[in-house]
Structures are given as structure tokens and as C-alpha cells.
Design a protein that fits this description.
mainly beta; 4 helices; five-stranded mixed β-sheet
Amino acid sequence: MNGTKEKGDAEIISLCSLRVGDAAFGMDTQQIHEVLGASVLQPVPLSHDFVGGVIPYRGDVLLVVCTRRLLGLEPLGKVLNLLVLRDEVENELFGLAVDAVDDVLTVDAASFEANPCTLTAAQKAIFAGAYKLRDGVIVRLEPELLRPSRLAEIQFPGLGIRTAAGVA
């Protein structure tokens, strides 16, 4: 598992905590290629609803996934924080727009739980599970579940993903 350390008998994971609306998310710090500040996104006409836009990035164009749209929230009109992620499986580089990048947390791998059965199919498709914390939970996000080419294939209602026939 990426970003893990052995501490005694416990496997410790370093998570970057993220905020989108009122929800708390976490991503393994080793899966984050770079954290950019506020960015101006250029719109992509006729793109999937989850696409927030594109930005120039190191001589290339980076497609940005809008986490607020994935969660059914209204976009803020500006990107407060942008993560640059690389899905190691598909070697796909992309951006993830979030409201805030907070602290780095260390969690015990044993506190991880799979997605509960109460989540919608759309939520199960983009959430990797959750870690129990002393004061709540933090939902784990994985780049491989959020990469644009994968999201374009999903057709769940309420996920805000446009299909060939319109909005699902």
C-alpha cells in the first residue's frame, strides 16, 4: 500500500485531508503529484458534467475533475485548490478541484472500513471506503476511481455524469 509506514505492529498511512462542501475526504499523500493553489479553469464545451475545465500545466493541458459536481453540489465558480494526480494503473495525469486542502493526518490502516451498504451506487463508484477517526470519519479517495477516462464510462443517475444520451 502506498504511503504506509510500520510503527510497532500498526501500519500507519499518511493522508492529505481535503474538504468539499461539509464533507471530509482523505487521499494517500504519495498519490498526490502536486498541490496547486487557486486556478482559473478554461471551460470545455460539450464535456462531461464532472469536468471542471482545463488548465495549462508544465507545457501540457490538464483536464480537471470537479469534485463538487461529482457530489451533486453547485460549483463555486472558482477553484480554491487543485490537486494534480496520477493514476499509476493507467498512467493518466489529471487535476482534482477541491474546496480546501487541510492537514496531513496519520491513520492506522486497521481503522479502514469498506463502503457501507447505505451508499448509493454512484457514491460507491467514487469512494474507496473510510477511516474511523476519534471525532468522525474521513472518506478515502483514490486517483484510479476519479480518473476522467473511468468516470466517462460510469452511467449512474445522480452522479452528474453526462452520457451519450444526455445526463444520467
